[in-house]
Specification:
Length: about 140
Amino acid sequence: MEEIETLERLLEIMHAHDLDALKVTVGDRTYELVRREPGAAAAAVPVVSAAPAAPAVPGVPAVAPGSAKRVTAPLVGVFYRSSSPDAEPFVTVGDRVEIGDVLCVLEAMKLFNEITSDYAGVVTRIIPENGELVSLGQEMFWIEP
């Protein structure tokens, strides 16, 4: 019952301030509410903060969790690996990238935002699935210098 009251209060705040997204930690739970297309309800999803272990990829060295540079989402949006459904991905695991290379696009409010690398190195992990909604600050790529 307490969780329902928390969600209702968060939805009230979101609507009162006309927010498109809201992420709040209450105790040991994190709630993320994201406004959908007009007519659709906002979603509330408890977020698990532990990241799964990186899968082994042939030809790419294993990366210790603390040694890779992390590229995080600068905004809430839908993650796309390519500029269109029939285009090649901007990057794949094992690709070498330079500072300024486009890694993906995030669609937010019908705008496509190119996300570029702040690091030079080899892409060792791509975390979100194509078409997945990512949160502000969520890890998207690991780049080994």
